Amino acid sequence: MFLVEKMEENGFMDGIKYAVFTDKSIRLLGNNQYTSNVESGSTRTGIKHWVELFFGVKVISMNSHRLPGKGRRMGPMGHTMHYKRMIITLQPGYSIPPLRKKRT
């Protein structure tokens, strides 16, 4: 269980921020692909191991890309944080229960 201890030390247990529910992500659910935003510093292998351990599923592949931060004009000028979006493909027969939605 060295891997689980190391993942908890590095904060990978909090890696997934929230699930993404857009038209494209809902369409991908039919292909057994799940979309979620994760911490920008998390790695693909760390998220893969965390998903497999926590949900008890088998991950085939993962695609990721970084989304740019948006400009902010209220208060101090600046921008929001960058974040990473992961598309996780599972083996047929496995599924992930709905993840929590981001509060608006």
Key terms for this structure?
104 residues, alpha+beta, Alpha-Beta Plaits, four-stranded antiparallel sheet, two-stranded antiparallel sheet, 6 strands, disordered N terminus
Please give the alpha-carbon distance between the first and last residues.
37 Å
Rough outline: elongated
- Under CATH, the homologous superfamily of the domain at 11-67 and 82-90 reads RRM (RNA recognition motif) domain
Q: Largest sheet, described in full?
A: 4 strands, antiparallel
Q: Level of helix content?
A: 25-40%
Task: Evaluate the radius of gyration.
Answer: 15 Å
Would you state the CATH class of the domain at 11-67 and 82-90? Alpha Beta
H/E series, N to C?
Answer: HEHEHEEEE
Secondary structure: number of strands: 6
- Work out the strand percent: 25-35%
Overview of the structural elements:
It is found in: Plastid, Chloroplast. Part of the 50S ribosomal subunit. It comes from Papaver somniferum (Opium poppy). This protein is α+β, with helices and mostly antiparallel strands. It has a domain at 11-67 and 82-90: Alpha-Beta Plaits (2-Layer Sandwich), CATH 3.30.70.330. 26% of the residues lie in helices and 30% in strands. It is built from three helices and six strands. It has helices at residues 2-10, 23-28, 44-55, and strands spanning 16-19, 33-38, 59-67, 71-72, 78-79, 83-90. The chain has a four-stranded antiparallel beta sheet. The chain has a two-stranded antiparallel sheet with strand order 4-5. A hairpin with a 5-residue loop joins strand 4 (71-72) and strand 5. The longest helix is centred in the middle third of the chain and has 12 residues, at 44-55.
